[in-house]
Design goal:
Largest sheet: 22 strands, antiparallel, barrel
CATH class of the largest domain: Mainly Beta
Helix content: under 10%
Number of domains: 2
Strand content: over 45%
Structural class: mainly beta
Shape: globular
Oligomer: single chain
Number of strands: 48
Distance between the termini: 42 Å
Low-confidence stretches: 1-83, 335-340, 403-415, 466-480
CATH topology of the largest domain: Maltoporin, Chain A
CATH superfamily of the largest domain: TonB-dependent receptor, beta-barrel domain
């Protein structure tokens, strides 16, 4: 039994909540009353959720609400001020001007800097866990893959692009490695769901993640934060901000995070299976660690009441173990073909048989200059320039003694692949935007010009050899490592002009129309040398391609009442064409794929009720998604069974996406806040093409041929999160806050063949936090626990020759955070 885990008390009433998993049943109690939820917590499967489960969940929520309501009456006299406070207004800039989120005709989720602190969010993964329709894949920790409403990308070549783009202070972050950022010292985070092709430009076909940093403050502000936790976790953060001269303000902030890895190698238990490895390398390492440092400096100059200049420089470095995984066989059962050769082997969720930790290292530099100038009282001119340099390095160690489904022989003496996949990826990006924003009578407008130049050099090598070993102290002969690879150089030039107009037909009814014309050119150089797995990789060439696209938006918005806002939108987006990443031959390397296109149809309602104590936002949408750039593992039609296959990216599919998203915030009584979100997503390929001359590889069982009707990658049908927080204002001048957070995601397939063993199974996770603000409000102390019930689940998975290669999520973690502020 685990409990009680949450026991707030006061003078009169007592609330006790506990959780006890018992077989396939979970018992939850509140105020001594027990309710049973069959398969609702530990084995929740919303894909086939029965109505009685929904009713039971509702009863649980009602019980907790009534208990909290009773408790609140005892402290109502101490909290009258809090009881009169409505839900706070959230200001966003998703339409390139400051607006109340409740009056923006876009599906957007926003987190303030305080929200990030209160929820313990330190990276974009934490944002994905609390945003409808937002998911993330993590094979290489230095190259996150973001998906919104089933739209994303796993193409990482120099000539490829992402589908969900991260912006930092409105600056486009194109390379995946450049979005591997710690979240600190932020004003807010905005997640815009669906195509944003008009105002945000190319590649924002799935959505945008906008990180807005805090500007230097006029008043002196100093803050330090320290965290210690299990797995040797240690974090330090801080900032200093204030005025340094007349009309001039500066700020410096930093974040430093350390934590041991939680995926351990257990090869030290079987030295006979790993001849030639000894000493410090024999099982003396872990993976999925944290090792990052980030720094940001900002200068704000306000020479007149019409002009403001902001300069920002930042540097981040991450240095961790490389891609981390463990083999999972069909049916989700841990797969180890050679288990008989490993007496005493025990499958453990956070252990594998890798012989080397590999590495994943990113260094990110950036400079941004922004000028805002007010032209009269109704228009603002903005000039926004940036330079960013992203240097990424990865070593992914490959040994089929860990992926034993890849044995090259079933003979008495098995053959194993040994080696690594290594790459460096260096990218320099310059962007500039001129923008004019303003109003003229009943007309509001945003217009501008945009330019991007990106140069990327990527060197990928695959030193692979073959090891002969019987796994029991045998001869251990080997074929020497063959080193080969693929050097890619790409330069992208992109130009666009855009405008969006909103016209108020009446005080409450408005229409909007917008468009963006983009012209883009990519020029690529490539040199390929053979490897053991790609003996035909012999090429040396230069080529290029250009594309253009118009993306538009039309909408109507109606402020039905002061608290109800309705909108209907049709919006387009596109993702640029490009070139295959690592390619096995010249034909694949030199053949471009064309842009993707998406058309969104969305109806939305944003509302507040009960004197702003209930906020309820709903979006219903369908997206026509065409010419998908699908990365497929294929083999020639005449290949013999067991052929490993070739990765090919082509415009191979169309898809239909439909869904509903619900977000709510509820303040039923003083000091109690309940908020959450629910997503239902239905995705399927409406058309899927296998390139001529190829077929899918043999993946165990029947080889799929027609993938029409299959689900898209990273598109769980159901997902929800619920957070409850209670705050006490104490008589000594301090404040106490207790928070619980429950998140669920349905199964998410990771490949076009919707293979169960290569999917991320459904999971639910519970976090707890308890914070105490000391009298005087300078010190705040927080005890926290993530994954409180130690759920075993995965962050990512991918298929390889009949088994899934799954990246485990963190186990239960806990710790203490202390924050000091100067006021």
């Amino acid at each position: 039994m685990i409990g009680p885990v949450f026991s707030p008390t006061d003078k009169i009433h007592r609330l006790k909540c506990s959780f006890r998993p018992s077989g396939s049943r979970a018992v939850v109690g509140a105020r001594g009353q027990v309710r049973q939820l069959s398969n609702a917590v530990t084995h929740l499967n919303l894909g086939s959720l029965r109505m009685r489960s929904i009713v039971r969940l509702a009863l649980l929520g009602l019980t907790a609400f009534l208990a909290a309501f009773s408790m609140s009456q005892a402290v109502a006299g101490e909290s009258a001020e809090a009881s009169d406070r409505p839900i706070e207004e959230i200001i966003v800039t998703s339409q390139r001007r400051a607006e109340n989120m409740q009056s923006v005709p876009v599906a957007v989720t926003a987190f303030s800097g305080d929200d990030l602190d209160e929820m313990g969010i330190v990276d974009i993964k934490g944002i994905t866990e609390r945003t409808p329709g937002f998911t993330m894949g993590v094979f290489n920790p230095g190259q996150p893959q973001y998906y919104i409403r089933g739209i994303g990308s796993n193409e990482d070549g120099a000539g490829g692009d992402q589908s969900v783009i991260v912006f930092v202070d409105e600056i486009y972050i194109g390379r995946s490695a450049g979005s591997d950022l710690d979240l600190f010292d932020l004003e807010r985070v905005e997640v815009l769901r669906g195509p944003q092709g008009t105002l945000f430009g190319k590649n924002v076909i799935g959505g945008a993640v906008s990180l807005v940093t805090k500007k230097p403050s006029e008043e002196t502000e100093v803050k330090f934060e320290g965290t210690v936790g299990n797995l040797s976790a240690l974090t330090f953060r801080g900032l200093a901000s204030g005025q340094i001269a007349d009309n001039t303000y500066a700020k410096f902030s930093f974040s430093s995070r350390r934590r041991d890895g939680y995926l351990k190698s257990q090869i030290d238990q079987f030295p006979q299976f790993f001849p030639g490895i000894s000493g410090d390398l024999l099982g003396k390492f872990d993976q999925l660690d944290v090792n990052s440092d980030s720094f940001r400096g900002a200068l704000r100059f306000v020479p007149t009441d019409r002009m403001e200049i902001n300069l920002t420089a930042n540097y981040s470095t991450m240095d961790r173990a490389g891609p981390s995984y463990r083999s999972i066989g069909p049916g989700g059962i841990p797969f180890l073909a050679d288990a008989a050769l490993l007496p005493g082997y025990e499958d453990r969720h956070h252990e594998n048989l890798l012989e080397d930790p590999g590495l994943s290292k990113n260094d990110i530099y950036g400079i941004t200059a922004r000028l805002d100038y007010d032209i009269g009282d109704t228009m603002t001119f903005t000039s926004l320039s940036s330079y960013r340099d992203v240097e990424a390095e990865q070593q992914w160690f490959l040994s089929t003694k860990n992926l034993t489904a890849l044995r090259l022989s079933t003979n008495t003496v098995p053959l194993y692949l040994v080696g690594s996949n290594d790459y460096t990826d260096d990218s320099e990006t310059f962007t500039h935007e001129f923008r004019l924003t303003g109003s003229w009578g009943r007309l509001n407008f945003v217009s501008g010009l945009y330019y991007l130049n990106e140069k990327t050099d990527r060197n990928e090598t695959g030193p692979i050899g073959i090891d002969f070993s019987n796994g029991m102290g045998g001869v251990g002969l080997s074929i020497p490592v063959i080193v080969g690879g693929d050097d890619q150089g790409n330069e992208t030039d992109s130009y666009s002009v855009f405008a969006q107009l909103t016209f108020d037909l009446t005080e409450r009814l408005a229409v909007s129309v917008g468009g963006r014309q983009t012209w883009e050119e990519k020029n690529i150089t490539r040199v390929g040398t053979p490897t053991a797995l790609a003996p035909a990789r012999i090429f040396d060439f230069e080529t290029g391609e250009d594309w253009s696209a118009f993306t538009g938006r039309v909408g109507i918005e109606w402020q039905a009442t002061d608290d109800i806002f309705l909108y209907a939108t049709i919006a387009e987006g596109f993702k640029s064409g490009g070139y295959q990443g690592a390619a096995d031959n010249e034909l694949i390397a030199s053949t471009p794929f064309n842009p993707e296109e998406a058309v969104l149809y969305e109806l939305g309602a944003k509302s507040e009720w009960l004197d702003n104590r209930v906020r309820l936002n709903v979006a219903v949408f369908t997206t026509d998604y065409s010419d998908l750039q699908i990365l497929q593992l294929l083999v020639p039609e005449d290949a013999v069974p067991g052929t490993a296959g070739t990765l090919i990216t082509q415009n191979a599919a169309d898809a239909d996406i439909k869904g509903v998203e619900v977000e709510f915030t509820f303040v039923p009584v003083a000091n109690l806040t309940i908020q959450g979100a629910y997503t239902h997503l239905n995705t399927e390929f409406s058309n899927f093409f296998i390139p001529s001359g190829f077929r899918p590889p043999d993946l165990g069982g029947a080889t799929p041929v027609d993938r029409t009707g299959n689900e898209l990658r990273n598109a769980p049908k159901h997902a929800f999160n619920v957070l409850a927080r209670y705050d006490w204002n104490l008589a000594n001048g301090g404040a106490l806050s207790i928070q619980g957070d429950w998140r669920y995601k349905d199964k998410a397939f990771q490949d076009p063949d919707v293979l169960d063993f290569a999917a991320v199974p459904s999971y639910d996770v519970v976090d707890f936090r308890a914070s105490y603000l000391w009298p005087g409000a300078n010190f705040e102390t927080t005890l926290w626990m993530r994954n409180a019930f130690d759920e075993d689940y995965f962050l990512h998975n991918w298929p390889l020759q009949g088994s899934g290669q799954a990246t485990p999520a963190p186990p239960r973690t806990y710790g203490l955070t202390v924050i000091w502020r100067n006021d």
